[in-house]
Amino acid sequence: xxxxxxxxxxxxxxxxxxxxxxxxxxxxxxxxxxxxxxxxxxxxxxxxxxxxxxxxxxxxxxxxxxxxxxxxxxxxxxxxxxxxxxxxxxxxxxxxx
Length: 97
Hints:
The chain is an alpha+beta fold and 97 residues long. The protein has helices at residues 15-31, 58-75, and strands spanning 2-9, 36-43, 48-55, 85-90.
């Protein structure tokens, strides 16, 4: 299992619009990558937005990050206070309820 993670700082007050755009734009792009298993977005109190998607293979996680960063630069720039960062790697600890 591998995770693709993107993180950026949002402009204050943009949580609702970010959520709408992510649901309409990013979810279809990321879920279309082979090996897709799950997608989560966390909006922290300091306006940091973290998207985490789970895949079967490392190459799939990297592909998701490539697609997501391109989409972020094109469609979310006006809502962000800086550039998005991306990382991918193996999930070394996980649990489910």
